[in-house]
Write a structure and sequence with these properties.
With 202 residues, the chain is an alpha+beta fold. It has helices spanning 2-21, 30-36, 57-80, 107-121, 143-173, 177-201, and strands at residues 42-50, 88-95, 98-105, 123-129, 134-142. The chain contains 6 helices and 5 strands; from the N terminus they run ααβαββαββαα.
């Protein structure tokens, strides 16, 4: 009798992984994600792809994880910049006696900035369906957690500005105006970052 129970238990535990891990995770279903992670509370990113080579499953999943995070970040940028305001940079081009100003809208920079922030509180899941060869990745971040991160980052950056300006005052008093100017430029750069973080927080 004991031998029978042992064999039954052994079969159960050997087949358990097939049942536990063989099923598709619920987060791969659109309806489940929308219900479990409502847009009013979360930002999400979801991507899927066909695995090209089973040997490269690790790298493929890492790439898909990054793609999911990038899609999440893009949803943030699109959401907060509905007025089509994006990060812009201008540069002057001179050719002979002719000069022109070129304005470049750098949407990718905005995405990278948001991606760096979201990875702090972002949860990423990935899954490989061995039967179909499909791979999935899902990234999610709670809006409240992201807002708390931006608030903290703004406060840290404001302290940096205060320190830089204090140092600049001391350098001016010591007659080191060029060094003071560099400190002011540093403060200006940090302030620009704060303005962008405030937009994201809003």
């Amino acid at each position: 009798m004991n031998n029978y129970l042992f064999k039954t238990a052994l079969v159960f535990f050997l087949t358990l992984p097939l049942f536990a891990f063989g099923q598709m995770p619920q987060w791969t279903q659109n309806a489940w994600r929308e219900n479990a992670f409502p847009a009013s509370e979360y930002y999400t990113g979801f991507v899927r792809d066909k695995l090209q080579s089973a040997a490269g499953i690790g790298n493929a999943l890492k790439t898909l994880d990054r793609d999911a995070q990038n899609q999440l970040a893009e949803s943030i940028i699109v959401n907060i910049e509905g007025d089509t305001r994006t990060v812009t940079a201008s540069s002057s081009i001179e050719r002979g006696n002719t000069s022109a100003e070129m304005v470049i809208t750098d949407y990718r920079q905005a995405i990278q900035t948001a991606t760096r922030a979201t990875t702090v509180k972002c949860e990423v899941k990935s899954y490989h369906d061995t039967e179909t060869g499909m791979i999935y990745a899902f990234a999610v971040v709670r809006r409240a957690d992201l807002a708390a991160y931006y608030t903290k980052q703004i406060n840290v950056d404001l302290n940096k500005v205060e320190v830089a300006l204090g140092t600049a005052e001391q350098l001016v008093a010591a007659g080191k105006k060029m060094s003071a100017r560099r400190q002011c430029l540093t403060a200006k750069s940090v302030l620009e970052g704060i303005a962008y973080s405030q937009d994201l927080l809003t």
